[in-house]
Amino acid sequence: MRVSPLWRAAAGGLNEAFLRCLVGQHTRLSQDHLTPELALHLITPACHLWHSTVENSPLDDPFWAFYWPGGQALTRYILDNPKLFHGKTVLDVGSGCGSAAIAAVSVGASEAVANDIDPVAEIAIKMNMEKNGVIVKPDTRNYLASKSTQLQDTSKIDIILIGDMFYDPNFAHLISNWLQSIHPSSMVLIGDPGRHSFKQHPLHSSLKLLHRYKLKKTSQLENNGLTEAGVWMFNRLHKV
Amino acid sequence: MSGLRVIVGCKRVIDYAVKIRVKPDKLGVVTDGVKHSMNPFDEIAVEEAVRMKEKKLASEIIAVSCGPTQCQETLRTAMAMGADKSIHVEVDAATYENLQPLHVAKILAKVAQDEKADIVFTGKQAIDDDCNQTGQMVAALLDWPQATFASKVEKANGDLTVTREIDGGLETIKVKLPAVLTADLRLNEPRYATLPNIMKAKKKPMAKKKPADYGVDVAPRQSILKVEDPPVRQAGSKLDSVETLVGKLKDAGLVPS
């Protein structure tokens, strides 16, 4: 039975407790990924929703409930390179479960905004940061649709993280446009497992590969056909 | 030879578990309101392509389906299984009733050229019309080697070694690439698509095309004269003794009197 209208009402701010229950009920705390230092609320093969159809899921497209391979690689990279993040302000766009923002704060970033437009993701991010004993700032604004005036904000951001956002050709286009408009002093790190819309994108020629990781078996199961993920740095000297 | 580009033909057929009913005009079968799914042999072809990608043999898998709008569900399934993108060649329901393997083969051949494919992979046959022609026709149209009824596919330097199911045994052949492969039942056991894969597949690119975009005329080359149910089995009867049975068999002339 689909209860989406229920959570939509709840997501309006009426009942955070209800959403916390929903997230808790349908996920497991998982460390079976590239960043076992972080325990995250995820839908794993042990959860009944793993085997559900989209129609039968009480959670509307719970993208936050899966630890996307690009996000895993990016978060691994953060945990392995604490110096890069020390004292920095970080924006994690399309944060999902919040892993990258959580990792950034845990290695010493002064502030991390975990941005995801899904109100349920906001709850999951809160639950995950509490579990891992750090504080990040959840934010549900749509940064990618923001006009450049609002993007003044990005001048205050040292590092922008984009974990596995190139899963859809339109979205890829939106992100590459957005990257042209952010403040030039911000560093941009992108995690991606070799998705079609990433590999084919003209932006690809402006990226420098920093590291490549082999995915764990569980991630391969939820990403049929993908076996590894990489972290790239966006080099704005190349015009796209 | 990493980085092979694989085209997989995915036909939407009446689900294997559905009881087929012939239409009253005896020119086809009832498809309205009937559960459909991907042709099981095509599912095996998709699975093999995904395994080739996981073994880093293939770099990109493109699923192609020809038919009405509902074929998009079949393509979503293929992408949930691991295909990278898909092409829906839309054929309206009326035309689709007379769409034949030659038409589909011409379309697949054209897609293979456009996409610079190294492999065209299909099921050995579709479980609805049992034609077993499409893969072979694609090979002929492209003048590519073919390895049909594959039960094992391995790489061998620049070529593929394919084990084929033949009458009473197996045949192992070597084919040069590009090539056409068709999947037999024992090639693999296809995976089920789980929620995370289905969700992510919704975001993968699906191009919409028409046969005319590939310059393919879909006018039928054959006409269906008659479709018939298999003969209904006669009811049996229960007898109370062996003597009565022997008597009946003798009466029917099935044993010497």
TrEMBL record, chain A:
GO terms for molecular function: protein-lysine N-methyltransferase activity. It comes from the Eukaryota. One of its GO terms (biological process) is methylation. Coiled coil: none annotated. Pfam families: PrmA. InterPro entries: Ribosomal_L11_MeTrfase_PrmA, SAM-dependent_MTases_sf. Gene3D superfamilies: Vaccinia Virus protein VP39. One of its GO terms (cellular component) is mitochondrial matrix. The keyword Transferase applies. Keywords: Methyltransferase, Transferase. Belongs to the methyltransferase superfamily. ETFBKMT family. This is ETFB lysine methyltransferase. The lineage of its organism: Eukaryota, Metazoa, Spiralia, Lophotrochozoa, Mollusca.
TrEMBL record, chain B:
It is found in: Mitochondrion matrix. SUPFAM superfamilies: Adenine nucleotide alpha hydrolases-like. Keywords: Electron transport, Mitochondrion, Transport. It comes from the Eukaryota. Residues 26-218 form the Electron transfer flavoprotein alpha/beta-subunit N-terminal domain. GO terms for molecular function: electron transfer activity. Gene3D superfamilies: HUPs (3.40.50.620). GO terms for cellular component: mitochondrial matrix. One of its GO terms (biological process) is fatty acid beta-oxidation using acyl-CoA dehydrogenase. Heterodimeric electron transfer flavoprotein that accepts electrons from several mitochondrial dehydrogenases, including acyl-CoA dehydrogenases, glutaryl-CoA and sarcosine dehydrogenase. It transfers the electrons to the main mitochondrial respiratory chain via ETF-ubiquinone oxidoreductase. Required for normal mitochondrial fatty acid oxidation and normal amino acid metabolism. ETFB binds an AMP molecule that probably has a purely structural role. Heterodimer composed of ETFA and ETFB. Identified in a complex that contains ETFA, ETFB and ETFRF1. Interacts with ACADM. Belongs to the ETF beta-subunit/FixA family. PANTHER family: ELECTRON TRANSFER FLAVOPROTEIN BETA-SUBUNIT, ELECTRON TRANSFER FLAVOPROTEIN SUBUNIT BETA. This is Electron transfer flavoprotein subunit beta. It comes from Elysia marginata.
